[in-house]
Amino acid sequence: MRTIVIALLLVPLLGFAGASEHAPKGTFADTFLILPEEVRDAAKAGRRVIVFFEQEGCPACLRMARTTFVDGAVTQRLRRQFVLIAVDLNGARETVWLDGVARPEKALARQLGVNATPTVLILDEQGRIAQQFVGYRDPKSFAAMLDAAASK
């Protein structure tokens, strides 16, 4: 039992954090997680919102942070055409989804049927889910997906 407790205490020290903490500074938006405002502000700027569901210790999320989100073609597209927001699949931060209901991140994930990470939701200018995918995407395929999802 003592070994399990010590192991659980060491997990944060071993670097098992969400992708958003390992991605280059400025990749993910600083946000209060009030999605109607994020969608409205992004649309005014000709951009779309991407909601990136991650969780601590997710190898695919970490791989995206260390490969996909550092790729120049990806970062250029993200900064120019999107607002990237990280949401913790098991998190407790309060969110407000497009239905106006406030709920913790983990309740939002359940509401949206998100149960695996990484899950990416690309919202259109009205906040509807325009595209959704689950799992790791390499830089080339992620950039292509961004091109297809960019606001016209």
Description of the molecule:
- 41% of the residues lie in helices and 20% in strands.
- The chain has helices at residues 2-10, 19-22, 35-44, 59-68, 72-81, 105-112, 139-149; strands at 48-54, 82-88, 94-96, 102-104, 119-123, 129-134.
- A 4-stranded mixed β-sheet has the order 2-1-5-6.
- Helix 5 packs parallel to helix 7 (139-149).
- The longest helix is centred in the last third of the chain and has 11 residues, at 139-149.
- It is globular.
- Residues 2-16 have low confidence and may be disordered.
User: What sequence of helices (H) and strands (E) makes up the elements?
Assistant: HHHEHHEEEHEEH
Radius of gyration: 16 Å
- The total tally of domains equals 1
The number of helical segments is 7
- The CATH architecture category equals 3-Layer(aba) Sandwich
Q: How are the elements arranged and paired?
A:
Layout: H1 2-10, H2 19-22, H3 35-44, E1 48-54, H4 59-68, H5 72-81, E2 82-88, E3 94-96, E4 102-104, H6 105-112, E5 119-123, E6 129-134, H7 139-149
Helix pairs in contact: 5-7
Provide key terms for this protein:
disordered N terminus; four-stranded mixed sheet; 152 residues; 6 strands; alpha+beta; 7 helices; single chain; two-stranded antiparallel sheet; Glutaredoxin
